[in-house]
Structures are given as C-alpha cells and as structure tokens.
Amino acid sequence: MKREAFYLTILTLFALLTLVQYFNYRELKTKNETLTKTLKAYELYIFSEFDRFEEYVKRENLKIPGFELLKEKKAQSLLVEGQELFKMANYGEALLRFREVLKISSDQKTRELARHYLERCEEKLGGR
Asked: Which stretches of the chain score pLDDT less than 70?
C-alpha cells in the first residue's frame, strides 16, 4: 500500500510538472509570436510606406510604444526627402513625398510647410 501511494505521489508530481511546463511553453510561444509580429511591423516602418506599417499594426492589434512619435518622425523624414527632391528639381517625386506628409502628420507646422512645398511643386509642374 505504501508503495502504491509513493508511485501515485510521483506520478502526480510529474503530471503537475508537465502541466507547468506546458503553460510556460504556451506563454513563451505567445510572447515569441507577438515579438515576431512587432519586428515585422518595425521592418515595414523602416523599409516601406507608413500606410502599410499603420495597417499592419492595427490588423495585428500590436502595442507599439511611441506610435504617434514614430508617425511624426516618418513625416519629418518624408518632408526632408521631399525638400531635397525639390532642390534637385525632381518635382514629381517631391510632390508625392509632400502628399504623404499631409496624410500622416498631425503637426500643424509640418503640414503648413508640406502644403507650401506642395503648391510650389504644382506650380513648377504646371508651368512646364
């Protein structure tokens, strides 16, 4: 009888350890999947248009810290890129950058500057 109780105790202990291990595995797997999706989101942010990044973040329900700040940084980057294209007289490409800035930026000064350059690009392209 004592032997059976001992075996029962050992089997119960192993069953509990197996359950703990399983739940830890599930938690780690979920964290890994979330981190993989977050990494893909940042790749989209760096290598793609902001629209695709924003859509992916919303679709996957990711929590990106400083999302609004990333949005404004992207807008600033596009604004500078557009200004450089404007200086090089590449008005068509600059026009696209300024339109993108207007789509994603909520900063009033950035929007005004983008609108100004957008109008100048349209003047240059219309004047040809």
From this structure: 127-128
Q: CA geometry: angle at 40 spanning 34 and 42, to 5°? A: 105
The interaxial angle of helices 67-87 and 91-104, nearest 10 deg, is 160
pTM of the model: 0.69
Summarised one tens digit per residue, pLDDT across range 84-118 is 999 999 999 999 999 999 998 889 999 999 999 99
Listed in sequence order, the residues at least 6 apart from 20 whose beta carbon sits closer than 8 Å to its beta carbon are none
Supply the DSSP string of 46-111, one letter for each residue. Answer: HHS-HHHHHHHHHHHT---TTHHHHHHHHHHHHHHHHHHHHHTT-HHHHHHHHHHHHHH---HHHH
